Amino acid sequence: MRRIVNSTYVTLDGVTSDPQEWSLDYFDATAAEYALDKLRASDALLMGRLTYEGFASAWPERSGDEFSDRMNAMAKHVASTTLTEPAWNNTHVLRGDLAEAVRALKEQDGGDVLMYGYGPVAQQLVGHGLLDELHLWVHPVLRGAGTSTVFAPGVTGRYGRVATRTFDSGVVVLELSEPVAS
């Protein structure tokens, strides 16, 4: 059975929006290798429409390195009720009940399914016990405000195991796995 693994950048005050404005100074060679290892363990991406649109506008223009080439080649699954003609290659739109579609995706053979960002799709998966691992890249930054945060009202979940990884840049990755019933 495949695992759904979420990898999300977050500030100390829980903000996840606009990471390009606050995270880039903290992305060093060690963080890049860690991110590449997570991508290598995956053979598909799962995202909501907004994340998809951001990625689809940036990644197809990149190539010539392992990370970009893998991102562009792998299967992409997008949860959306409005996306009708995805332009990025190997994109499949998940329609209907999200939990049902993700359960079916997890039943397929293959590697991990990687998600970037923690928005409505990730929150729904946590609510249904379908998010197997949550990797929060905690950045030593306070934003004060943001349009999205990890700590959305009403979303609850518990994880049974936590590991940490600390980079010289000051970023700490909390690896939460083994979801347990709330």
Automatic annotation (TrEMBL):
<dbReference type="GO" id="GO:0009231">
    <property type="term" value="P:riboflavin biosynthetic process"/>
</dbReference>
<dbReference type="InterPro" id="IPR002734">
    <property type="entry name" value="RibDG_C"/>
</dbReference>
<dbReference type="Pfam" id="PF01872">
    <property type="entry name" value="RibD_C"/>
</dbReference>
<dbReference type="InterPro" id="IPR050765">
    <property type="entry name" value="Riboflavin_Biosynth_HTPR"/>
</dbReference>
<feature type="domain" description="Bacterial bifunctional deaminase-reductase C-terminal">
    <location>
        <begin position="6"/>
        <end position="171"/>
    </location>
</feature>
<protein>
    <submittedName>
        <fullName>Dihydrofolate reductase</fullName>
    </submittedName>
</protein>
<dbReference type="GO" id="GO:0008703">
    <property type="term" value="F:5-amino-6-(5-phosphoribosylamino)uracil reductase activity"/>
</dbReference>
<dbReference type="InterPro" id="IPR024072">
    <property type="entry name" value="DHFR-like_dom_sf"/>
</dbReference>
